[in-house]
Amino acid sequence: MKWEFDVGRFSKSQQKIADFAMKSEDRLLYFTEEEIAAHTGVSVATVSRFWRSIGYASFKELKRVMQESRQATPARKMQQLLDKLEQDDMMSGILAMNIANLEETARRLSRSEFEQAVEALCSARRIFAYGSGATAFLTDLLQFRLNRIGFDVRVMARSGHELYENLVHAGEEDIVVIFGFVRSSPEIQVILSQAKEAGYKTLLITDLLVSEMIEACSIVLQVDRGEIEGFHTNAAPLALVDGLAAAAAKRSGAAAMERLEQLHALRKRYVSMIPK
C-alpha cells in the first residue's frame, strides 16, 4: 500500500503512529487501536484522530482499503506460494503453513463466541449452511457431522434463484451458517437482508478482520487461512467445523450417542446388502 502523507507536518505523537503503521504494514490489519496506542505510547483517542488526518474516516475504513488493495489473482497467489516453498520438499512447506494457520486461529478465535455458536446450533430448529467456491465443501462436512447426531442441517444452493427455495423455509427458530471468505457476495447479502425479515440467526465463519458481514451477523467466528493476498488453506475452517460438531455432540449428551448407536445398528442390519 502506498502511504500518501507528509510526516514532517505531523506532531510527535502522529509521527510515532505513522512510523508504526509503515513499519508494521503487513500486520496492521490485525491490530486494534488500543494495541497501536500501547505500542506507540500515545492515547487511543490520538490514534483514532490520526486516521482522519491522513484522509480516512476511521481505522475501519483504512483496513477496508488495505484489504482491497491486496487482492491478488489466482496465478499471483500460486506463484507467491511456489516462491516460498522449497522445491524439493513442498509437502513440508504446506504442512508448516497449515500449522501456522491453525495456531493463529487458536489465538484469534473467541471462546465466548464459540460457546454462543454451539448454543445457537443446539437450540435451532433447523440449520441452513451456505458456502461457495473452494470452501463449499465445508457446508457438506457440517451437514454430515451434525445430521448423524440428530440435527436437521440443510445445505443451501450456492447461487441463483435456487437460493430462494431454501430461504423461504428459514424462520425465527432457525440459524444460517455462512462460510464467508475473501469478500461478501450478492447471495450472502440476500441471506443477511432476509434475516432481518424472517428473524433467523446468522453464524459467520470468516477469515476477514474487516467486513460489513461481521457487523451484520449474530455470531462471528474468525479463522486464519493465510495472508490476505496469498494462497489460502482450509485447515483452520475445517478444524472449526469439527470442533463445533464435537461440542454440539457433547452438549446434546445421551441423545447424540443414541442416534450414533442407531446408525451403527442400521449398518449392521444391512451389512450384507451394502458392505462397508
TrEMBL record:
Keywords: DNA-binding, Transcription, Transcription regulation. Pfam families: HTH_6 (PF01418), SIS (PF01380). Coiled coil: none annotated. The keyword Transferase does not apply. InterPro entries: Homeodomain-like_sf, HTH_RpiR, RpiR-like, RpiR-like_SIS, SIS_dom, SIS_dom_sf, WH-like_DNA-bd_sf. GO terms for biological process: carbohydrate derivative metabolic process. PROSITE patterns: HTH_RPIR, SIS. Residues 117-254 form the SIS domain. SUPFAM superfamilies: Homeodomain-like, SIS domain. Residues 1-73 form the HTH rpiR-type domain. GO terms for molecular function: carbohydrate derivative binding; DNA binding; DNA-binding transcription factor activity. It comes from the Bacteria. Transmembrane segments: none annotated. This is DNA-binding MurR/RpiR family transcriptional regulator. It comes from Paenibacillus phyllosphaerae.
